[in-house]
Design brief:
globular; Rossmann fold; single chain; alpha/beta; binds S-adenosylmethionine; two-stranded antiparallel ribbon
Length: 243
């Protein structure tokens, strides 16, 4: 497994990430999760494939809601271990492999999810082609990524809790190396039009776009809600394979 991809295997980064996810008003729970679940809708009887599944909390939730099957793809061994613990008393499966090497199998699925993982992948064309292949006709893909205005430039992250955000080098796609939770992490910037073209070029039909507009009811802190009104943190795209 390429080490630079499996950076969540760094125990310091992993514990920082888990602490970050447990924080009140963390952006995953206040912004990404409600919108993702709204786009996903009823999960009953769905076969689900989750690219970059992390600890597979979504898998457990989906199976409890009546999903027929759940398979997670995950590059970090530490995350795979957490995911297998999470899914221990369920039928859910996790495969230790990268999104880049994952290939569609003969079994097709109803839903491909990828939550906050594709901005770690440089070349997305083949990933979207594989997503098309693995979907049954009428099947859906829902992705969330860090918003392109965020991935364009991470300089303002150096100030800690950001109050200003610098958008820069927007039309220069590619690697963005930055310090996150005390470690060096590489993300890949893709522009908004690139994401839309990836969907269209793969033969998928665009259904919904969300820019993680905050909803007050999900926040404990008024100040944090106001801060999240300033810039879109995440981009969510839902598309489907034509019947
Ligand atoms: C921010 S976490 C999100 C985890 C989960 N999807 C969630 O929303 O809770 C990103 C996950 O993607 C995984 N990941 C990053 N790059 C990957 C790649 N190239 N292939 C497979 N997994 C990857 C990371 O190891 C990590 O578990």
């Amino acid at each position: 497994m390429p080490e630079d991809k499996a950076f969540y295997d760094n125990s310091e980064l992993l514990s920082g990430y888990l602490a970050h996810r447990a924080r009140p008003d963390n952006p995953n729970d206040t912004l990404e999760r409600p919108l993702f679940l709204e786009l996903a809708g009823d999960l009953t009887n769905l076969d689900i494939l989750d690219l970059g599944c992390g600890n597979a909390a979504f898998g457990k939730e989906a199976l409890l809601q009546g999903a027929r099957s759940y398979t997670g793809i995950e590059v970090s061994q530490s995350m795979v271990d957490l995911a297998r613990q999470m899914l221990a008393d369920t039928s859910g499966q996790v495969r230790h492999e990268s999104i880049e090497t994952w290939r569609a199998q003969t079994e097709q699925v109803d839903l491909v999810s990828s939550r906050l993982a594709l901005h770690y992948v440089e070349n997305l064309e083949s990933v979207f082609q594989e997503i098309y292949e693995v979907l049954c006709p009428g099947g859906r893909v829902i992705i969330s990524v860090e918003h392109p205005v965020i991935t364009s430039n991470f300089e303002s992250l150096a100030e800690g809790r950001r109050t200003t955000w610098l958008v820069n080098n927007y039309f220069k796609p590619g690697a963005r190396v930055h310090q996150w939770l005390g470690n060096q992490v590489t993300k890949y910037h893709h522009t908004l039009e690139e994401y839309f073209n990836l969907v269209a070029d793969a033969g998928l039909e665009l259904k919904h776009v969300r820019e993680s507009r905050p909803k007050k009811s999900y926040f404990l802190s008024e100040e944090e809600y106001e801060r999240r009104l300033r810039i879109p943190l995440f981009l969510l795209i839902a598309a489907c394979k034509p019947r």
